[in-house]
Amino acid sequence: MADNKTGFFKRVFSFGKKEAEIDAPEKLNQPEKSEQEQEQKQIPDLPILPDAPVQEITAPEKSETLPETLETENSEKIDQKKSWFQRLSSGLSKSSSSLTSNISTIFTHRKLDDDTLQDLEDVLIQADLGLETSMAITEKLAENRYGKHIEGEEIRTLLSQEVERVLAPIAQPLKLDFHKKPHVILMVGVNGTGKTTTIGKLAAKLTREGAKVMLAAGDTFRAAAVEQLKIWGERTGSPVISREIGADAAGLAFDAMQEAQDAECDVLLIDTAGRLQNRAELMAELEKVIRVIKKQNPEAPHSVLLTLDATTGQNALQQVEIFKEKAGVNGLVMTKLDGTARGGILVAIAAKHQLPVYFIGIGEGIDDLEPFEAGDFARVIAGLTG
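RE: above sequence
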């Protein structure tokens, strides 16, 4: 499997490779070198280390070490990709084993007829893949294989292809526009979906890549959430804006916007209190937070990310619908995929709402939150190993 990611995020400004031909922020204000200084420079620049912001590099001519360097870097990328695929396979094992086991049971020594097609559709729906995707899979099977014996492996291959077809359009990198500092990310969701933890992991990955990050402890109802965010702030070297417990969350967001602008931060990550999507008064408070943010910057929040707990199954569909309407959600983060056999709900959400899924979480570690890749997810959920 080829690694098609260029870093953790897709950046429109300083960290972008193709979006804009602009150097990193720290180089923008440097004066141009005189012709005399340029003539004195006879030795070509060395390649940038892998952890530095991505830039186009021209290799020095007649270098005997470059091929070995490239081979080492490619090998490291392949190892990282393999490691993530293995962890994804482990994390989705409950979803995958439940689904593939039921498929194997259906097609043991049976021909593909109306009964087996109905049984397969029931299994796919029970796996939370959604009615639309389930019907598409059974219809494709019926086109060419009706009345014939069919093996579970063939079903799993078709399942993988159909799931990838549904998921590919929504597997997108999160774009961070550093032309407009700070890029404001508002994290929303119901209680227990992992909003605060996700903010911490994103902050860790952003600061690793050189971004200047500020955190805002907008869940002013829970002392534990504030303390948790402060710990992440210490770990990542990111300042945390917080107030006393019970303080007005909208006022905190306003202050955080001002402080992030004054500090010239690249990214401001704002936590919010968990809200039940069926509680109108709680959703109204969230709308107030967003209105206050827009007073500081009419274009903010630039990203409104909804964290979804995969273990909630079909309830996640309703959460997306309400938060999209009330909070303007424009991206999703699916967490706790390692704790459920209902990982297929991601397919149903994609088919119905067509919102980008930026990240998925399969554990508690920082590296257990990764950009979403449709092909990997589809192969794993279908029980294919490669």
